[in-house]
Amino acid sequence: MTDPIFDKSEQLKQVQQGILPGESIIAVYDCIGAGTGFLGITNLRVVIQDKSFVGKRTAITSIPYKNIRSVSFLSNKSWAGQFFSSSSIALDVADTTYEADFRGMDKAHHVHTVILEHIT
């Protein structure tokens, strides 16, 4: 087993606190922009910290891969024809779409790839 990739140790610790037996953390990436604090990916699920609740409340939402209908790159337009130029992804889960914006294209690409591997 390899060590998880992470941006901030406190975010990694939050995900570690909720790990189930047999579950392993792949990565925990800090998110930018309003709402999402971080996005974690494990071998079983996606973990999203959502800071957008009224009264400064924060939710840690777990999304099993089997509940994700699609994963998308978000981009204003194609940058010189390169599809993977985006640093944002969207997850379609039933009636909800979760968006996550990352610092750097490589993180969005990694998250997209891991999720796609689990849902296809």
TrEMBL record:
Pfam families: bPH_1. This is Bacterial Pleckstrin homology domain-containing protein. Residues 10-117 form the Bacterial Pleckstrin homology domain. InterPro entries: PHb, PHb_sf.
